[in-house]
Specification:
homotetramer; 3-stranded mixed beta sheet; 6-stranded parallel beta sheet; alpha/beta; about 290 residues
Chain lengths: ~290, ~290, ~290, ~290
């Protein structure tokens, strides 16, 4: 298939590479040049502007956040020049508000729009093993299916409204942040009673919490090893904010998300914004004062 | 081994049965008579009073809470008549405060004391598949080891101070409650955007949250099926209180536990105290108002 | 003085009338026509467009919120046609972000900008008895001083940066919301022990809490009389959001503001958004379940 | 009247002195001897034991907390030897649980029991200017009235059940703590935008928050002057705990009290427990990180 790809961050470059490996013809654009060059060496074409990439059969976007999407012109200008048959598949995590706006603006111009955010880290993106959550018109999702198969190990189809996928992704990220906070408070508490975090986590991840999330973040928190960042804390704060905004728009109080917001904000205020988001555990430690 | 066993609730009766099956000689006591009779039919001896059960090589207690332990006399009177060589293994979830008190009072009388709370539900207790967290003098834990092997699939040895096991168990239960609350808020949020709870949980438990806790509580919450209660909500509130009390004694702020306290309390105030503790999810739903 | 006045809501109309009474020449604009006519009868000139009002010596704006200010064109277009000597005095409660943006955009065009939000309700606006918090260049504030004297009983001058006044106003409104929530929880608690809210408030407002805020909101909460709304609950939610946004921008965690957000949101979710914001007390009542 | 008085802390000694000044015959007891001697010089008789003081027409207790009351024997032994006509007026702030227990145990022995906690600091106690909240049988309160008139500037009579007064006092103290927290967060926020705390408080205490509480605590927080402690932070934490316990017993969620608990606990964890409770404001400052 003829695919445009905008946004070659840690995730995007792996995803684009997976598409190339699967035999698709990929035209890539990125704000900075380096990742473009790397993918060109792997067989992609370079697009000099977002507009050049935003055409073909399907255009995939994997930009950083709402602001980046607006900057590139996807909330308006870029749609004007797009071919009538283009299907836009947005795989980034964005707000429910922007998702609704994009769904409406694409529909108004007769363009297809599918929201297909992903779970998984950069290594899974590179290996084509992402978990993909897709929502949008059935025909559109079917059209994009071969691309999903190239990038993911499994795709869930949620429904016809793209906001469903946006909300599901936001809810999932919120649960991740909540799990981290619970590990943080639990290990701080136990450690003050002589139970080292690694000891507590060894028990829990071999019993009730035998899940990737608890194993990976538990190890980072127990080892206080927050660099290099798998996912930066400031991005975690952004995701918590997406949950709160989605809650406000739908009038859903989310006290746990509010608590996370303040805790992440406290971490940023103490200079930990560029560490892995599991570094939020340091907030719990600090609040408990010096160990006695 | 010659074992006394006090407390034949849903968990205790399965544990005592496991000991009998393993060939130990077990003398059982319970406040109500029925479970005693059932175990006698399985080969146990009946103890007419707590004191009669609180002797032999090892006495195991699996009573409901701090109050039940005090009522039976374990915080004092019962220790007076105990044989000098008795080892008391307390497998119930109790406060760090009572744990410290019991450790001290047993030591003052030369009696051994091991805290060995468990993770697992009644079916795992009956099958001898519990996860056991033990703390106390090494020699004492070694003495009790054959009993742990009969009741559990694995035992973790945490250290010489019984409070370590109490704190680890309390921290684990807190994390369970936190996981339930995060599922509750996430599913309420997603459902207001057209994603049914079961759909969200299908994605999450097949990706990041592939853990027993999320599967089991997720299913209950998605199905709004809170009876019969696997673990009663009022007991969940009690456990959150144990975490808060442990935090206060060690000066560890636990904002997430505080949030859980208020949420569980709201559930109890609305008459849901005897439902499964995953029914706390109804609080999130109710707070979000009628669906629109 | 020759004054333009944009925004004739409940507050703005009283403020404009105070200016007319003080002998100033006032040209008024409002989105809807009725309040314009009323003020014309009192001696104002009508402006047909925002641009017509945004000139003279000083233009005062008292628009509803950030969005209304942007809509009218104050974040850009309106500034283009403004006379070089114009001083813009924004007396509405707006975000710190917009305040910074307006300060910069006015400065870039050589226009003066003063932030001068007010405390006080509509009756105080009509009586020229507002409390005014002004920040901006000293010379600019001096120029506006006669107008402040016409509209207020007292004006505080905070400093040269308009964001100081915006932040002070936001902080004050947050404290109001916090006081309401504290009354709500306290009266709910006391009432469950047989102390009627009015009884509790009689004690407190005659002792430690002998302040207008506690007297007025206390009476509304005790009487459960939330209509007509002195200040609508949805606007209270907006103000809490302004505090949270200001906190995020300056990296100040505000757990109490977060709690207020969720409580106000719960009130809105239950259909109480158009009641007086003291109706947030009903959330506390409801959470405590039916009285027993 | 013939009055026994137990508990001569900062408050109690002023109250007992007020009784002596009013011409009553007062027999005083205190755990430590110094305050007894001082009052004897002022005209009191010394009681060598609590039992000696717990007789006469009326016995007033002003002990530190629940534990002190139990220690002295008021939850049982002391009542045995009391004369049948004795009226016990407990003016300390105690839990609703203990209040109920004392009301019942006194009634069982035919003794009168009135709960009459007070608002006011030590200087007001010494000046006989306390605000007194009394609940208990009408006849009993009438009997104690001359004493209330000697100690207070005004007494509120709440009803026949002593728990009403206990709950009202606990609710009032909770509101004080909430006001302090709101000042803390508001001043931290404003200060990060260039508004000094004293400047913000000057505005607020001259407008909406023109109340003793905001003036006094505002000054302490703005000046960061937390010694000597007017009311120690650890006692503030105790009072928040009383509110939470009262909430739990009546099934009233109190999210703001929970937030206060964690904030006070964080202050204690950082070594500020013996400062004035307004020092809890330092927690907000610290959470916001170093000023930039």
């Amino acid at each position: 298939m003829n695919v445009g790809f905008l946004g070659l961050g840690g995730m995007g470059r792996g995803m684009a590479a997976s598409l190339i490996s699967a035999g698709h013809h990929v035209r890539v654009w990125n704000r900075s040049r380096d990742p473009v060059d790397a993918l060109v060496r792997a067989g992609a074409d370079a697009a000099a502007t977002p507009a050049e990439a935003f055409r073909g059969d399907i255009a995939i976007t994997m930009l950083a956040d709402d602001a980046a999407i607006r900057e590139v012109g996807l909330a308006g200008p870029l749609l004007e020049g797009a071919p009538a048959s283009l299907l836009h598949v947005n795989m980034a995590t964005v707000s429910v508000e922007l998702t609704r706006e994009l769904a409406a603006s694409h529909a108004a111009r007769g363009l297809g729009y599918v929201a297909a955010p992903v779970f998984g880290r950069t290594d899974m993106a590179a290996a084509g093993k992402l978990a993909i959550i897709a929502a949008g018109a059935t025909a559109a999702i079917e059209r994009a299916w071969p691309l999903f198969e190239a990038m993911g190990r499994r795709t869930w189809q949620l429904g016809a409204d793209p906001v469903q996928a946006a909300a599901a992704k936001i809810a999932g990220n919120f649960m991740l942040a909540a799990a981290i906070e619970s590990i943080a408070e639990a290990t701080t508490l136990a450690s003050r009673y002589g139970v080292p975090p690694a000891g507590l986590l060894d028990i829990l991840t071999n019993t009730l919490f035998d899940a990737p999330v608890y194993r990976s973040y538990g190890a980072l928190i127990a080892g206080r090893k927050f660099e290099p960042a798998g996912f930066r804390l400031v991005l975690g704060l952004k995701d918590v904010r997406l949950a709160l905004a989605a809650g406000e728009a739908a009038r859903v109080p989310l006290p746990l998300a509010s608590l996370l917001r303040d805790t992440f904000l406290e971490a940023v205020a103490h200079g930990d914004g560029d560490l892995d988001w599991s570094a939020v555990a340091e907030v719990s430690r600090r609040r408990a004062g010096p160990d006695r």
